[in-house]
Amino acid sequence: MWIDTHCHLDASEFGGDSLAVAERAVQKQVSAIVIPAVHPSNFSAVAQLAQQRRDCFYALGIHPMYVPSAKEQDLQALRDTVANILEHPQENPRFVAIGEIGLDFFVPELSVSPLKEKQEFFYAEQLKIARDFDLPVLLHVRRSQDIILKYLRRIKVVGGIAHAFNGSEQQAQAFVDMGFKLGFGGAMTFTRALQIRRLAAQLPLEAIVLETDAPDISPSWLHPAANSPAELPQIGQVLAELRGLPVEQVARQTSANAHQVLPRMLSA
């Protein structure tokens, strides 16, 4: 069985058919899907999706690409929402992490003042929420690995997942040393993605989790169509081929890695 550690199941691309999309993934042996929020406006949507299916879990956070429209009171709303969830665990068993949070310096306007500084402020404040509640984080890391790591050294969290990892081997090791797993998905299926494929083949399997980021980052056989969590087993097969391992071993280990880094999944 496979675990999709990052899937925007509430996205409009699924045409309001999210529950059926999840069911199709389960039929393909995907045993769990983690749905990260991107802004307070979809906190309730991801929570409701997760509550409707025992194979779905959710995280809450403010995505860096939504930071331009975010307000400081949104951070307090996130903190209050998390506090309420953790005070009533029986009513909210499917909450697993803070996310999706991080930094995006690929988009030109986000990489310069004042949005660069605003991104860093929201990232740091959300790390503090994760630290204060002892929760893992789902990190958006796009052309920002070193700055992401700088803040992780200052604000200690229990770990999490560096989603859609595309850094160096040295950066990968730095994340692993701080208790993080590295997310690999559709990008790994393109033969031209030499660095990602090399890392996927050579990093310890214990450091890797799988993801789709659906409806984004479609694998090579689907691109440019929208991605789906049902594609995860075939993505996992690519990882197995890159490493020369049985598919069953890759499924078992990457799922164990996801449970290790997102332990609330096991108690739901």
Structure description:
With 268 residues, this protein is α/β, with parallel strands linked by helices. The protein has a single domain, classed as Alpha-Beta Barrel (TIM Barrel). The protein has helices at 18-27, 43-52, 72-87, 115-133, 145-154, 169-177, 194-202, 232-243, 247-261, 264-267; strands spanning 2-4, 30-36, 56-60, 95-104, 137-142, 160-163, 180-184, 208-210. Helix 7 links the parallel strand 7 and strand 8. 46% of the residues are buried.
Quick summary:
With 268 residues, the chain is an alpha/beta fold. Helix content is 43%, strand content 16%. The chain has an 8-stranded parallel beta sheet with strand order 1-2-3-4-5-6-7-8.
List the helices and strands and how they pair.
Elements: E1 2-4, H1 18-27, E2 30-36, H2 43-52, E3 56-60, H3 72-87, E4 95-104, H4 115-133, E5 137-142, H5 145-154, E6 160-163, H6 169-177, E7 180-184, H7 194-202, E8 208-210, H8 232-243, H9 247-261, H10 264-267
Parallel strand pairs: 1-2, 2-3, 3-4, 4-5, 5-6, 6-7, 7-8
Strand order of the largest sheet: 1-2-3-4-5-6-7-8
Q: Compute the number of structural domains.
A: 1
Structural class: alpha/beta
Number of strands: 8
Percent in strands: 15-25%
Would you give the CATH topology?
TIM Barrel
Average pLDDT over all residues = 97
User: What's the helix count?
Assistant: 10
Output the CATH class name. Answer: Alpha Beta
Radius of gyration: 17 Å
CATH architecture term:
Alpha-Beta Barrel
Q: State the separation between the terminal residues, measured CA to CA.
A: 17 Å
Residue stretches low in confidence (pLDDT < 50, at least 5 long) are none
Q: Looking at this structure, what is the CATH superfamily?
A: Metal-dependent hydrolases
Major β-sheet profile: 8 strands, parallel
Order of helices and strands: EHEHEHEHEHEHEHEHHH
* Morphology: globular
Helix content: 40-55%
